[in-house]
Model the fold of this input.
Amino acid sequence: MFSGIKHTFINGIFITHLHGDHIFGLPSLLLTIAEYRSINVYGPTGLFEFIRIAICQGSSGHDALNNIHVHEFPKKFTGTKTCIDGPEVKIHARSIKHSVPCIGYVIEEAPRYKWDPEIVPIIRKEFENWEKILKCRETQDFTSVLKNGEVIDCRDWMSKIPGRKITILGDTSDPSNIADLANACDLIVHESTGVTGNEDIIRSRGHSTARMAGLFASRIGAKKLLLTHFGRAVGSVEGSADEDDEDLNLILQDHLETCSQVFPKDDIIIARDFLSVSIPRRESLPPKLSSQDLKDAIAKS
Done:
């Protein structure tokens, strides 16, 4: 209601772990969505049972459950589990260290390609099936065959806009298991339960400090770091999480300053309820091969 995102736009829900502060709002959202259509939900073992118990108390809950498709990860799994493997977006899951089974997710956008203007006239002239070739972005069929049987990859003559990558971690004291998958991401969402001075205690409870979050973001070469989950210290502040709350802002500023000792301050974002973050597209890369290279390949065929 307050986020501005309509439930009709939600195609999948990804749960990191089964602690109440991360899932207690889930049943009501699922009831709203499942009344009209099916929805996929991903998360750790035990998620389905939680949803079943929570929504089947009412008369409409059993009907709604038929539209809720839960995909559970084993309590202990190694490697990468791919949740979504589409032509435009892939979403991968890895286990990360917390006090209970916990999942981190990496969202990868597929690269986009654009024809080099110098190449298009050559293709129109030299290839009988030029219409099919020029539509390869829509069909995702990037191969073409020269007269001599040589197969070429059309992407070699197209500029490339690399896809964006987002890493979303659940609560964690050590997300190292997802480091290679999250490498060079455009944005990482990392918890910041504490600041400094009590790092050992926070780690022993399965959580991270602002400094730990900054160090991990630096380690994987993240472009932006969004800090969230500010722990009991923030929760103990009187009143709501209002932007004009001076006590709250002082605490959040402490997280920001501490994290900025190990990660660029300008690239740190402090999360707030209903915050929207825009992630700019990456810079376009020039084609691997030139128009002259294509002319030479056609001449040889």
Summary: Confidence is low (pLDDT under 50) at residues 234-241.
